[in-house]
Beta-glucosidase/alpha xylosidase
Amino acid sequence: MEIKKLKKFDDDFLWGASISAFQAEGASTKDGKGLSIQDVKKISEKYSDFSVAADFYNNYKEDIALLKEMGLSSFRFSISWTRIIPDGDGEINKKGIIFYHNLIDELKKNGIEPIVTIYHFDLPFSLQQKGGWSNRDMIVKAFLKYSKVLFNEYAKKVKYWLTINEQNVMIMIGSKMKFLNGGDKKFNQNELYNQSHNMFIAQALVMEEMHNNFPNCLIAPALNIVSIYPNSNKPQDYLAAMNASVMRNWYYLDAIVRGEYNPIMYKYLEDNNFLPDFRKGDYEILKKAKPDFIAFNYYTSATVKSEINNFIEVEELIDQQRLFDVPGMFSYCENPNLEKTEYGWDIDSTGFRVTMREMYERYRLPLMITENGLGHSEQLNENNTVDDDYRIQYYEKHLNELRKCISEGIKIISYNAWTAIDIVSSHQGFSKRYGFIYVDRTEKDLKEMKRYPKKSFYWYKEYIKKIKY
Ligand code: BGP
């Protein structure tokens, strides 16, 4: 369906970019920071670890100056739990508190709205040793305590808050990409669905805490939501797509937004003996809390069919975007209609629109895009820049679809590209870059880590400037 008249973006639409703490900050043991599961995991010899990353901890002022030059009005970053509370639930680290005050102040000074993720894959290692997300009493208390510290410190300065980054990726793929929610540990399905339930409870209590005590702030989950296509017009394939969507998208959003377990998912959990340990009062906790908007990360769509593949999973190919087989529910398949990025992710800007429409029609809450971008291997050219036309094309297509959604009446408050500066990819090191700004280092050679704007930097700057009028 073509849109005849495109609407303008609201004047207060936030144009931004994102990073996460463990992938950008470095300084992993500096100024009292405790270890997170990302700091202790066994990394592949091939890739860099997270100890220095993009050195954002020491470089944030210069980086923010570049973001300002690009014309950004928002910046989404996560707070490192172990910088604030080194062992996860004990003493508070003053220096960590000060760092984020300085960072937030610097953003505000430059007219950039901070969007804060409370937890982005970097669980404190000492909490993991106590059972991590499987230990309900411990983790719910610790997450609430940590969140309260953040709210008391920063809620006066920060309006937009995100609870947990990609709970659905941690639960669905976390065991395959081990490090996401348990260091190097693999979990069985039963334990994972218990972890997920504990995340729902912890998150609901945190949202309630915010609403009760900090009414000027807005809070939301940040899931990785993707539209899922049936492989054919066979009715069974359509059902398979519905199943995949329930398992990947709606089970999470139904619990977080509506405070309900999705009935199809509940039946699946029951039939497979994966039902979590519900406690008395859990439904009330879930019902009471409601996010103010929905934040989501979108990279690509997915396609499924009903027949089983019986293929052997290749560990190297597993990542957060690739679906797999869940017997009786759906099976993964390729989509031959879409081009792929260098790293094999389908490029699907129409799917971006489908995803936003589906979400808005289901939940009628404003949407915020917290991640969207393209990973590529890159090197500086002789002009000390990167001609990343492929990235510009990706953004152009996705932003066109975003504008169509706005024109169709979908309320969208902010778009944050992944990423502002090059950072360590979640599992493919510094080789896979996403930034508008090139950070000059390789996997093993840190060099001076100078920053160089890429071609997409100037493109985004112009886009933001022009779209306002
Ligand atoms: C999301 C994560 C990010 C980021 C991104 C790109 O799942 O929230 O932390 O890493 O994916 O993924 P990758 O770095 O693996 O290419």
